[in-house]
Amino acid sequence: MTLVTLCSPAVSVGGEAAPFSHHPLHQTLQAHVDSTGLVNYEGLRDDPAALDDYVDSLAIVSPVSSAQRFRRRNDQLAYWINAYNALVLHSVISAYPIASVADLGGLDGFFEKRLHVVGGDSVSLNHIENEIIRPQFRDPRIHFAVNCGAASCPALYQRAYDGGDIEEHLDQQTRRFASDPGHLRWQDGSLYVSRLLEWYRQDFVETDSSDAALIAFLQPYAPPKLAASMYEHATSIRFLDYDWNLNVQPRKEGEGE
Fold first, then answer.
1. d(CA 233, CA 211)
2. Residue 52: beta bridge partners?
3. What is the pLDDT of residues 131-178, one digit of tens each?
4. What letter would DSSP give residue 102?
5. Is 31 exposed, middle or buried (0-12, 13-18, 19+ CB in 10 A)?
6. What's the pTM?
């Protein structure tokens, strides 16, 4: 299938700029990501056509290069989250099998030095996250939507984000994060939280940098029993170690290399 077929035309029938299509990424996620957010990288490496076409479309079109195709703020946000997630997947399968994204030149090499063409510009993953998504949209829930390819990253969604319902799905992903004991749990009288919230603390608490402010952010999204424990007992946080191993689906018994 060609790029022209997969990507919506630049001009709609009515003469207005057509919305950008995330359908090829949606196809990719549906086919190769399971309900827990783990990725079948081997299968994706062997069947990359839809992802390749999507990455090719990112190279040409962005909210910067084609602003008329992203009139709503939420359309722009959906684009940048989808772009980040797609470029992580594309980078991993370009070298798969690997054990971690750190195998691609170290973490700094993968996130900062490795460049991708987006809307005609060369940008890094760190640029997309830290120069575009975080400062322009200022929504802490994005940290549970962008996926860095690591086991400790919030789960990769099985669908591409869309500007029309992104608010609902950002909330859903935040609740999913807060319901996962790998990211948030009450254990032995202490609240354990993903180190993600320590690294980006200012995004969650704004002017109040205390643990109590982080707890207050998380509590509405946590399951009722955990939320009650947080309200009654939690005053400080212990941050969990971050696992940079790849978020790969376990190999099924009997599968070969």
1. 13
2. none
3. 999 999 999 999 999 999 999 999 999 999 999 999 999 999 999 999
4. G
5. middle
6. 0.93
Residue 253 clears pLDDT 70, i.e. is over it: no
pLDDT surpasses 80 at 13: no
**What are the start-end ranges of the H helices in the chain?**
3-6, 23-32, 41-46, 49-60, 73-93, 106-108, 125-127, 134-137, 166-178, 196-199, 201-205, 211-218, 224-233
Query: Which is nearest to 248 in space by CA: 121, 153, 135, 141?
Result: 153
Query: 198: which residues sit within 8 A by CB, 6+ positions away?
Result: 237, 239
Which residues have a Cβ under 8 Å from the Cβ of 75 and sit 6 or more positions away? 19, 20, 63, 163
Q: Which two tokens stand for residue 236?
A: 């400080």
pLDDT tens per residue across span 18-64? 999 999 999 999 999 999 999 999 999 999 999 999 999 999 999 99
Tell me the one-letter amino acid at 102: A
> Token pair for residue 89?
């997947």
**Do the Cβ atoms of 246 and 149 come closer than 8 Å?**
yes
